[in-house]
């Protein structure tokens, strides 16, 4: 006979909580799960009364549970929030078109307005077209950079400055491990914080499910019979994240608390990252940082092998280095100042020359990726003006060949 | 006289046939040995040449825990070689006095045999160093307050019986820890405390640890996975430890394969070294300890990506412990305790390894 619920002591326990192996009944589990999210929200003062919040909704389990829990908590504890759903259409046939249908149903079920922003309309490229162009390797970079901007633009369109995402404890733990493996200190310093608002974006992002286990999210969705879409992205994952993910699955088997322990370690490590390193590195590593986290421990290995080659190269170069000493000058004031300053460059934020998006470079990452993509795309219309000459040399060469032939 | 034609000359000395590849360079045995120990030579310069903050004259004591493993034995050999060369110079700096501590392996794990032969061989091989051998349960003598800490740590799961021998009392405490992960974690903390207490007793300024690159990478990842992120710095990086002693890891720049090759040059080391048993393939993942899992992870990944694994430790070394808020120390492991950890006096990582929590 099954033991009674450890919480209410009356109903029959049907769930062993993955987080701590407590045995709970269905009602108590749902209640406990929601209460824990509520505690995270209140402890971190995540929301303000009257705030408008966009829930980044993919139709997957995490964002569906996030929407359901936030709706419940908003009513139960009277947060006074106005919630809506914001979806990104990456343009991946057989994956996103189906999951968007789920989001549309969710919008009806939860009576929330829904906004969909497509890569196609924003950038002129769907992910299917990007993959056709660059292949399956490395396409996650495009998707990640595009998604970040798309979420910001979608939020701007709705006039909302706070987007919540469904990143869970497993995702955060994975990010900590991945950034350690990649040696990415800037991201290590910001990946674990519940709110990531940086100079790189006008939109604040947060992850209310930061302490929720992936397995419990699945259980919650199951026991509340939520309508979600469970297929994973069909394109290739990032090797470091894949490697970190399988490691974390093993750790969870050994000690269930280790996911939370890694999150805790990540928070402590973030405090140890030297201040001059914190603000550096690639913009936009908020939560995800290299891939969208929807992969399942499959690895392509390319990124790790690439880094291995780079490190070995550095090592070889270090051995060949010759230290050149300049004659010692009497240390003037100027000289000393230069020596004391940290060598690390810090970011200064400006606007992208092309699209106006906030960027530390002249041209934002999305625009420079687009430039690369567009270079190889044949022009639709044939209009060889003098001004256009440079960008259509390929076409002209082709025309010449036709004439010669 | 025409020079002898070499098929594949050593890229350093060009005089001998190369036999090994070290980081993409083909070297002869002598140059290989020199290249490998050069990295250790640099890492221990401060002690050898008495650089700041160590006194230029007078005694300088250093502690060295020897596990009879490949890496600590090889490191000891390198240090002995270097000190030997230095002492041969009439006007060289005075060097240092190295106190080697051996925790008898059979007292840590009852299934491992006593290593009498290794102890004698080590003393014979390294005459410049002094050797001390202790049992694991001697911790009660070296760290008198550890018994009380143990009682608080294990709560009702461990009731000390003063009529038992130290050996039995330690065994009773260790038996109160239920999971493999916590047991390995607790054992490591106790050994660390014992080494620190020994070092202090011998008036040492620093402890030199013989952890290999893969051990350090595994330790970094395991500490993070055990919620010990805040202590990663002193666990794997050179610098001040919370115990007022410097911790130094001179092998941090070497790959394990380089240590293995080095050991083959000196057959006498084989008498000292206890080889690691290959990891059993039949153990279920869930029965491993986190430390073992990480060691396996680093070893399997390290075959393909040794640089990436080495980089994990380098990344940890870039962290700045001085940024951490000054807080109380954990009464068991010495790490920082934050306010959110409650009133027990134990840090987050230690609370995770206590018997009642899973």
Automatic annotation (TrEMBL), chain A:
Q: Where located?
A: Cytoplasm
The EC number(s) this enzyme carries: 2.7.7.-
Q: Name one Pfam family in it.
A: ATP_bind_3
Top enzyme class, one word, equals transferase
What does the UniProt keyword field contain?
A: ATP-binding, Cytoplasm, Nucleotide-binding, RNA-binding, Transferase, tRNA processing, tRNA-binding
**Is Nucleotidyltransferase set as a keyword in this record?**
no
Organism per entry: Aspergillus campestris (strain IBT 28561)
The entry's protein name is: Cytoplasmic tRNA 2-thiolation protein 1
One term under GO cellular component: mitochondrion
Q: Where is the Cytoplasmic tRNA 2-thiolation protein 1 C-terminal domain?
A: 350-381
Pathway(s) the chain acts in = tRNA modification; 5-methoxycarbonylmethyl-2-thiouridine-tRNA biosynthesis
GO BP, one example? protein urmylation
Query: In what ranges is there compositional bias, type Gly residues?
Result: 281-294
- Which positions bind ATP? 56-58, 62, 88, 166, 171
Q: Where is the tRNA(Ile)-lysidine/2-thiocytidine synthase N-terminal domain?
A: 53-232
Q: Where is this region: Disordered?
A: 281-301
Q: Which PANTHER family match?
A: ATPASES OF THE PP SUPERFAMILY-RELATED (PTHR11807), CYTOPLASMIC TRNA 2-THIOLATION PROTEIN 1 (PTHR11807:SF12)
Job of this protein: Plays a central role in 2-thiolation of mcm(5)S(2)U at tRNA wobble positions of tRNA(Lys), tRNA(Glu) and tRNA(Gln). Directly binds tRNAs and probably acts by catalyzing adenylation of tRNAs, an intermediate required for 2-thiolation. It is unclear whether it acts as a sulfurtransferase that transfers sulfur from thiocarboxylated URM1 onto the uridine of tRNAs at wobble position. Prior mcm(5) tRNA modification by the elongator complex is required for 2-thiolation. May also be involved in protein urmylation.
The entry's family comment says:
Belongs to the TtcA family. CTU1/NCS6/ATPBD3 subfamily.
HAMAP family tied to this protein: CTU1 (MF_03053)
Please name the GO terms that the record assigns under molecular function. ATP binding; nucleotidyltransferase activity; tRNA binding
Keyword rRNA-binding in the entry? The reply is no
TrEMBL record, chain B:
Q: Which UniProt keywords apply?
A: Cytoplasm, tRNA processing
Specify the superkingdom. Answer: Eukaryota
First-listed, main subcellular location of the protein, grouped into a coarse class: cytoplasm
Per the record, the coiled-coil ranges are none
InterPro entries the UniProt entry points to = CTU2, Rossmann-like_a/b/a_fold
Q: What GO biological process terms does the UniProt entry carry, in alphabetical order?
A: protein urmylation; tRNA wobble position uridine thiolation
As for family, the record states:
Belongs to the CTU2/NCS2 family.
PANTHER family found in the cross-reference section? CYTOPLASMIC TRNA 2-THIOLATION PROTEIN 2
Provide the protein name. Answer: Cytoplasmic tRNA 2-thiolation protein 2
What is the species listed in this Swiss-Prot or TrEMBL entry? Answer: Aspergillus campestris (strain IBT 28561)
